[in-house]
Specification:
The complex is a heterodimer of chains A (about 220) and B (about 220).
Chain A (H helix, E strand, L loop, with lengths): L26 E6 L6 H12 L5 E7 L4 H8 L8 E5 L4 H7 L2 H14 L4 E5 L16 E7 L6 H4 L2 H5 L2 E5 L4 H4 L3 H12 L4 E3 L9 H15 L1
Parallel strand pairs in A: 1-4, 1-5, 2-3, 2-4, 5-6, 6-7
Chain B lengths: L3 H7 L14 H6 L6 H27 L4 H10 L4 H21 L3 H9 L6 H11 L4 H24 L3 H10 L1 H21 L10 H11 L9
């Protein structure tokens, strides 16, 4: 968390907790992970779960289209003015880690135009296991993998799996069909992450995105405390 | 001043948003005008002597203390394509953020207040160079080099071009970069007394036209 940052001048620089007018900015949570692991579906489910209790917005980082943004628009999880797509020049990890300018611009514009906001979800373009968000862009990050991507991913580790504030193992309903051992994934994740939390989820199950939404609520409580 | 500050400002990894832009290379690749190292060199040479020359002169003039608001209007007048004007302001806003965090300056703060959604990138670049204690020639070099390094690195991604070939293109353009930077500073000095009309107004119609088409593509790797 970056509650102690402050910066003078007409506009916030990056991680500053206060907006230029002195109000607290929205909590920013990043969602990263490999292509097809269910990041956009998780974002959509989070929007449905939280939109009645929070003022929220989404930034998507598509690799070469506006597909993720358009999916969210089509699903009508939020009004269109609350969803912004950032173009990443063929390098999704650069846009969330090494050069976060375009994403910062997007989150600030959202706060200016549809704010005040409690929460902004920043979804990374599908990338590899090393892609993590800069602490200048997000306050906390979720790394989403899925059981069909191979049950050895938690064992292999990498910055996303080992350091994300929350690891989500998605599509658990598929485990029996793809021969993935959920127990082994949980043990490997525990070994890699020690006390950092892990959620196993199936968005097709009745519980859906509940555990992740609860985790987000906790982050928000800490942010506004 | 520290000359080494120029290395920081000109570094392709300086976090000012440039990585998401191809400088027109994506449109040129799609149209079959850039297909390899030789045509990339032609493309870069053309961009250097048009957009690069104008940018370098604007940046140098900002270092020399010419009113950035006037320079911004001069940049608008020299950029016929609305898509390219929007891109220049977007990149200017992103450079502004990085520059203010790196070299805090009241002049940068004032320009940020004047243009909350971004001034033209070369104008911001000139003020950033000034804030970093650099001179007009340094800023001109930086702008001229950016005008070719962006398309070169984008083409490596677009065509899977051998990165050594792309770097060779940039090295071969070095003498022309010297020339453009020198001429830009000359024009900028003239601009101090004679006003912004003394700045070059070279333009590449195909860059402007293809930028408009590119902005309307549904599927693209680069923002411009």
């Amino acid at each position: 968390m970056h509650l102690d940052h402050s910066h003078d001048g007409p506009a916030a620089v990056s991680a500053d907790a206060r907006r230029p007018d002195g109000t607290r900015r929205a909590l920013r949570i990043g969602l990263g992970g490999p292509v097809g692991s269910g990041k956009t579906a998780t974002v959509a489910a989070l929007c449905r779960a939280l939109r009645d209790e929070l003022s929220l917005a989404v930034v998507t980082n598509d690799i070469y289209t506006r597909e993720d943004a358009e999916f969210l628009l089509r699903e009508a999880v939020l009004p269109p003015e609350r969803i912004t797509a950032v173009e990443t020049g063929a390098c999704p990890h650069t846009a969330i880690r090494d050069d976060i300018s375009a994403n910062l611009e997007a989150v600030e514009d959202l706060e200016d135009e549809v704010g005040p906001l409690d929460l902004i979800l920043v979804e990374s373009g599908g990338d590899n296991l090393t892609a993590t968000f800069s602490r200048g862009l997000v306050d906390a990050q979720i790394f989403v993998i899925d059981v069909a991507g191979g049950d050895d991913i938690p064992r292999k580790g990498g910055p996303g799996v080992t350091t994300a504030d929350l690891l989500v193992v998605n599509k658990t309903d598929l485990a029996p069909y793809v021969g993935s051992d959920l127990g082994r994934m949980a043990a490997d994740a525990k070994a890699q992450r020690a006390e950092l939390p892990v959620v196993f989820q199936s968005l097709r199950a009745e519980s859906g995105v509940r555990d992740v939404a609860d985790w987000v609520r906790k982050q928000l409580a800490a942010w506004t405390a | 001043m520290s000359r080494a500050a120029l290395l920081v400002l000109a570094d392709g990894r300086f976090p000012a948003g440039g990585h998401a832009h191809s400088g027109g290379a994506e449109a040129a690749v799609k149209a079959g005008r850039v297909t390899g190292a030789a045509s990339l060199e032609d493309f870069c040479r053309g961009r250097l002597h048009t957009a690069g020359r104008v940018s370098a002169a604007l940046a140098a003039a900002a270092v020399l203390g010419v009113d950035p608001v006037r320079l911004d209007a001069a940049a608008d007048a020299r950029t016929p394509s609305p898509a390219l004007r929007a891109t220049a302001r977007k990149l200017g806003r992103q450079l502004m953020r990085a520059a203010r965090a790196t070299w805090p300056s009241s002049e940068l703060d004032a320009l940020a207040r004047e243009f909350p959604k971004g001034a033209h990138q070369p104008v911001v670049l000139g003020l950033a160079a000034r804030a970093a204690g650099l001179g007009a020639l340094d800023a001109a070099y930086c702008a001229a080099y950016e005008s070719v390094s962006g398309p070169a690195s984008a083409t490596v991604r677009l065509l899977s071009l051998d990165p050594f070939d792309a770097t060779g293109v940039l090295a071969r353009l070095a003498p022309e970069l010297d020339l453009v930077a020198d001429q830009a500073v000359e024009a900028a000095r003239e601009c101090v007394d004679a006003g912004v009309d003394a700045l070059p107004a070279a333009s590449a119609p195909l860059l402007e036209i293809s930028a408009e088409a590119h902005a309307a593509w549904a599927v693209r790797l680069f923002a411009s």
